[in-house]
Amino acid sequence: MSNLDEHLKTLKEKIIIRGTLEPLTPLHIGWQRSFDPASSDAPVIKDPRGNPFIPGSSFKGIVRSFVEGFLDGAVEDSKKDLKPCFITDDNPCIKKKDLEQYDQYEDAKERKMAHILKQACPVCRLFGSGDMAARLEIADVFPYSLEDSPTDKKTKIEKMKELMSARSGIKIDRKTGKTKGGALFQYEILGGGELFGEFTFTNFQLYQPGLLFTLFDLSTEGFLRYGHSKSRGLGVLDFSVESIKIIQTGKAEVNTIKGIGVVEKYRDYGFYAGADDKMTIDGDMGYENQFLYSTFTIDNKETIGTVIRQFKEKAQSLLG
Predict the structure, then answer these.
(1) What region does 273 belong to: left with phi over 0, alpha with psi -120 to 50, or beta?
(2) Which of 93, 118, 122, 151 could disulfide-link to 270, CB 3.0 to 4.6 Å?
(3) Could you tell me where the DSSP H helices lie in the chain?
(4) Per-residue pLDDT tens digits for 248-276
(5) Contact 24, 220 (CB under 8 A)
(6) Integer distance in angstroms from the first to the last C-alpha of the chain?
(7) What does R_g of the chain's alpha carbons equal in angstroms?
(8) Model's pTM, two decimal places?
């Protein structure tokens, strides 16, 4: 059995997707309660300097939950290996009792990891679980980009604060249908502007960014909403991809994006698609070879659109 640590620790490829997130309806992602008497009951979450932001963990939890439901409905019952396990339920894809059978072997750790990689459902392969690392990282979302100058960052923060306001809500007694006494509360909302996000995949398969891009479409259409008070119409975000950067170790094929599934020595680990886990792009991909690694830097809108479309086709072909 080959060394699984090589797969888990060796960087073969990375893709960094950067873009803007524009609230199409008011957005509220925040603390449950404020201790500031001058603040609303539920303010938008802010960093220690008072600047509004959205934790990457908030996005990741929302997206994971939606992917579970999306795949469960989209995948045919006959393709059980593609069905999500709903990790919080009583039937996770990786069962502790199944791993115990390998304790008798000297290479128990290797055998257990091989079992995990083969048996993990698509959602756990993407977002991780208690048994395996995630392939997707979502950075905290701020009202400015990393490339902005300090002056531009300050200007964008002040503009974002101007778009924040308080909204009132009430609680209803479900038995009587009337307003509960003292049930008036206020929550803070973000009414527009631009936020800047970054999504990073490491040692990924091509269907995985394809799932993310599909979710971007569903989000813009309002099928996937973020934050609190979604039943009140809040939480619709429009995602616009501004750049895609791909890093591959060694010399990459020009205009060819490969997933980890094409690596022959990893085939026994249960990766989907196998040799089909690659695609050729027609467009300017900004290819550079840096001796130890190669990069594709895609910031042309037309090429970005082509890349996104082909990623989504890979996700669709996997689901059938």
Answers:
(1) left
(2) 118
(3) 4-9, 56-74, 96-99, 108-119, 122-127, 150-162, 207-220, 301-319
(4) 888 888 888 988 887 766 666 667 765 68
(5) yes
(6) 32
(7) 22
(8) 0.83
